[in-house]
Amino acid sequence: MQSIGYTWMAVVYSLLLLLVLANPQGMLGSIARVPILREIGKVSYCLYLIHLIVGMAVQAALRQVVRPPTPVLVVTAYAFAALAAYGIAQLSWKYLERPLLERGHAARY
Question: What is the C-alpha to C-alpha distance for residues 94 and 91, in angstroms, rounded to an integer?
Answer without folding.
Answer: 5
